[in-house]
Write a structure and sequence with these properties.
Helix content is about 70%, strand content about 0%. By secondary structure, the protein is mainly α. α2 packs across α11 and α3 packs across α10. It binds flavin-adenine dinucleotide (FAD).
Length: about 325
């Protein structure tokens, strides 16, 4: 026997409501696998002795005991990358959950505002933890060297487990088409305007603290790069040339998610700085300092990638578009 759920002929709309929840769940599963991998590789890096620290003279003292690999800058870089990806993924997923709750509870325009932000952020909250979570696990596996590849440690399993996240509930390609093709133009671009307001608010809050001011400026710059990309792409959509408009949707997703994650990191750094100055803080200073430090890591190592995406997006060579008069090159 079958049951009709809701009103007749509205099934597809209901299905997408369910899918949006499922996409956030996939993002959360990816973030969870990446978090487990981060703690496994962190523990290994704290236990494994290998090599010696490079001295200022550039020589090694072979009579000295080996150092733990966590003391090598390249290993610390990989650990920071993992931490930067997993903690910001979680933060973005919590942000989406907040919008989902408020879209449910609020009324009037506030309800619409939270609904629009949730719609805009959902493809990113599914894709970033799935794609970059895989990158973070891959780096975690690298920290274990040969043991990372072997079944004695769980990293190889986490890497396989996360691989499905960018495929099911809509592949990364499809999420990217959703972001650029539906969510950006939705409601005359209102969701993007609301996101811009959120960025402006965060930048204003960060500028209250001298230590965070340079990072506020960097976020402002990359947000304006998203605008530049859209200024280049939008005329294609206006002229009905959707193939050109959407050809590099995945590059646009990479750029936007890189900037959104910077926004989440700056929000966390603002909260951490504020909390450190608060007499009733919940955690030790090292907890808040680690958030600010990881934000700086993200802005140095990851955020510049948004600029490279912009360069690709505004490049006028149409290398992936099939022209019927051209032969295919593969
Ligand atoms: C372990 C596992 C569990 C699953 N569980 C479920 C489940 O519970 N329920 C369910 O319904 N499904 C489930 N699936 C199916 C899953 O959702 C699909 O595999 C996924 O949506 C991709 O579809 P596809 O495999 O047909 O790939 P295709 O649609 O053939 O896509 C192949 C490639 O082409 C790209 N592509 C396709 N169309 C376009 C386009 N228009 N523009 C640009 N690029 C495009 C895709 O991004 C992808 O890279 C599961 C799959 C697996 C592997």
């Amino acid at each position: 026997m079958g049951y009709l759920v809701g009103e007749p002929n509205k099934g597809l709309k209901y299905m997408f409501q369910m899918m949006n929840g499922a996409r956030i769940d996939v993002g959360m599963t990816a973030a969870s696998a990446a978090t487990a991998a981060y703690y496994a590789s962190l523990q290994y890096a704290k236990e494994r002795p290998q090599g010696r620290k490079i001295m200022n003279s550039g020589k090694k003292d072979v009579t000295e005991a080996q150092t733990l690999i966590i003391n090598h800058p390249d290993v610390r870089r990989m650990l920071f990358l993992q931490k930067a990806i997993v903690e910001a993924s979680l933060s973005l997923l919590i942000e989406c959950s907040k919008h989902a709750d408020l879209a449910h509870c609020e009324t009037g325009d506030k309800k619409i505002v939270h609904h629009l932000l949730l719609e805009l952020l959902t493809p990113i909250a599914k894709t970033y933890p799935s794609e970059m979570g895989r990158d973070s696990i891959n780096n975690g596996l690298q920290i274990l060297g040969g043991y990372g590849f072997c079944m004695d440690f769980p990293l190889q399993q986490y890497l396989r487990d996360i691989r499905i996240m960018s495929i099911y509930e809509g592949t990364t390609g499809i999420q990217s088409l959703d972001l650029l093709g539906r969510k950006i133009p939705m409601d005359n671009g209102r969701a993007l305007k609301l996101l811009n307001e959120d960025v402006g608010l965060t930048i204003g809050n960060a500028r209250k603290y001298p230590e965070l001011t340079p990072y506020a400026a960097k976020l402002e710059q990359t947000m304006s790069d998203i605008k530049k990309a859209l200024e280049y792409l939008m005329p294609y959509a206006m002229n009905g040339d959707y193939e050109n408009y959407l050809a590099d949707a995945t590059v646009f997703m990479e750029m936007t998610s890189t900037v959104i994650i910077a926004l989440q990191w700056l929000k966390m750094a603002v909260s951490a700085t504020k909390e450190m100055n608060n007499g009733n803080k919940k955690f030790k200073n090292s907890f808040y300092e680690s958030k600010i430090y990881t934000m700086k890591f993200y802005f140095k190592y990851e955020l510049p990638k948004a600029k490279a995406c912009l360069e690709t997006l505004i490049n006028t060579d149409k290398l992936t578009i099939v022209d019927e008069n051209n032969e295919l090159y593969f």
